Amino acid sequence: MHNHESPATVPPVLDCVLPDGYATVLLNPAMTPRQWRRKQALSLVRPTTILKGLCAAGMAIQMSCGGHGFGEKFGIGLVTLIVVLGVFRVLGRSARETSFEYEGVPRLRLRWGEFYRRRDFDDLGADSRELVAELLTGVQVLHRSPALAWLDPALPGEIHTVVWRALCCLDHSREARALAQEVAASLDTTDDLVTATRRAVDDVDTSLREVARHVRGCVVLCRAWEQKLRRHDLAARVSHTLATIPGQEHLTRLSQDSDALPRNVFAHVTAARDITHSGAFPWEQPPSEWPGAGHPPAGRTINTPNHEKGAVNAKPTSKPYRPTTSS
Predict the structure, then answer these.
(1) pLDDT tens across 287-306, in order?
(2) Which residues fall within 8 angstroms of residue 101, CB to CB, at 6 or more apart?
(3) Is 295 left (phi over 0), alpha (psi -120 to 50) or beta?
(4) What is the model's pTM?
């Protein structure tokens, strides 16, 4: 299995900020990365700053060349040119461009025909609105999927193009939908015109639902592969982590090495007790004499001749630790 690295492309679906609020935008697949970078570069240029700079330069030239015909004419001509360019830019922008803000880049301008907004189809009804939302979400999910690196590099572009064409068909059906409503309101439901217009709209909707179903299938397949990739990654991490844990043989040897420690400590402690004549430990006393023991534990032997053996057998909850065998 080989990992195919897909080339960096322009995101087909953008979450942008428009002058009238947030919007999800599908870009025209015909827009190349070079065109996108050019638009980003142009968005960083403030036209008002340039016009102000040219205007100031024209006025400075005119003032510095006061009384001279060439300087005065040049300054007037430059100011006139600035005004004309500003007017044309304002008029052209309002008619053909929309300002976006994407990834912190303000004034990113796209012309009509270079994008579709999700809400551009809200007026076509709830079914069309849900269809557009599903198509755009599918393209967005596929573009962000880790499975994208394993697909043919041409497939994401093909899916993007198909979805764009579907939205174009939906957009071009506006007139037919309006006409179908008008015909249905004006003629009898059995009229051939009503049947023809309704059938035409239904054919468009059926085809677009089929496109949405196929896009949904692509999303399901990619998510299934994502799950496989995730499990493969987890399996590698589990294998690496478990390899660092000590094995059963080591754990068994460790437990065996620690088994004799309490007996050895007990032997030394009791020997020191005997040498120093420090008296018996609490657990070597009869259970009735243990500190805090008002009554002997139920089911325990309390009158054994050997106090130490009785303490070992009793094992009350209030006494300190006592080894099971003495050395």
Answers:
(1) 777 666 555 444 444 444 44
(2) 16, 17, 18, 107, 108
(3) beta
(4) 0.61
